What we know:
This is BioF2-like acetyltransferase domain-containing protein. This protein is α+β, with helices and mostly antiparallel strands.
Amino acid sequence: xxxxxxxxxxxxxxxxxxxxxxxxxxxxxxxxxxxxxxxxxxxxxxxxxxxxxxxxxxxxxxxxxxxxxxxxxxxxxxxxxxxxxxxxxxxxxxxxxxxxxxxxxxxxxxxxxxxxxxxxxxxxxxxxxxxxxxxxxxxxxxxxxxxxxxxxxxxxxxxxxxxxxxxxxxxxxxxxxxxxxxxxxxxxxxxxxxxxxxxxxxxxxxxxxxxxxxxxxxxxxxxxxxxxxxxxxxxxxxxxxxxxxxxxxxxxxxxxxxxxxxxxxxxxxxxxxxxxxxxxxxxxxxxxxxxxxxxxxxxxxxxxxxxxxxxxxxxxxxxxxxxxxxxxxxxxxxxxxxxxxxxxxxxxxxxxxxxxxxxxxxxxxxxxxxxx
Length: 372
């Protein structure tokens, strides 16, 4: 039987990118796409973050019989004397995935897309953040002879779509920090008036105000923990989050993202944001007022999101990291992702060698010996 050939193209203009909107959304629905794979999220990442930073589009599309069956949005940027190719995103903790129609997904399709990225999106370095270690793309990428970095992290997904109801799910869990589900909320309610409010795209002004609060609280935490991501201090990233929270969904989706505000005595003590996928949601950010840290308002917010996702029969991607709450709520459903950096050209290898030489010349910190 005749198998139609795949047509692979690389789009590099905003007009051609935007023209994909309807077909991209249809593909996203068929694939039960993740939050970061939707057209709207990718467009906002381009419009609010990548384009202002001077990057250029490299969107790989695959068609069969003129139907869009896969898309991988990338951007190319120049750093001094070298170029970098990386997935299009808002420059936070973003996964690397290829959106593909499940009826056409295969190792060969992924290989064709990976070859197109290497040959038709020329760059000195290729950076693939948080790429699933079990994915076809990972297996192909680590075989590149220019691989110079492979940093492994973990992430957790709570398969809440498989749970019958909240009561049976909560009863199946043990304790976290000595507390069963619901206990932290009951404890904090003894301290004052507590309410949890969920915001939507119609709450434009409050969305912006709560995102500013969330980022300010997160920056305070980053200073204390010495974990300062550049995205935390980026006006472009802030504007991306506001646009995301204010963006209505497409089709039968009611929103692209949701904000939960936990208040005590009418003042915010925790604010968190999740991104909506077709059949799952992603924990984007969670922050809290450090003056109420002992009451664990951040943990209360996470529990509220878990319950909300379960009631909607959606899985909850708790994100990258090894925090205790992630294996707890996911019942140990933890997997590995890796951040890869590849020197794709001869000049990329030179750049890597220069970096290594510069790092070796830095003075090392003196070793502190403890008395025993």
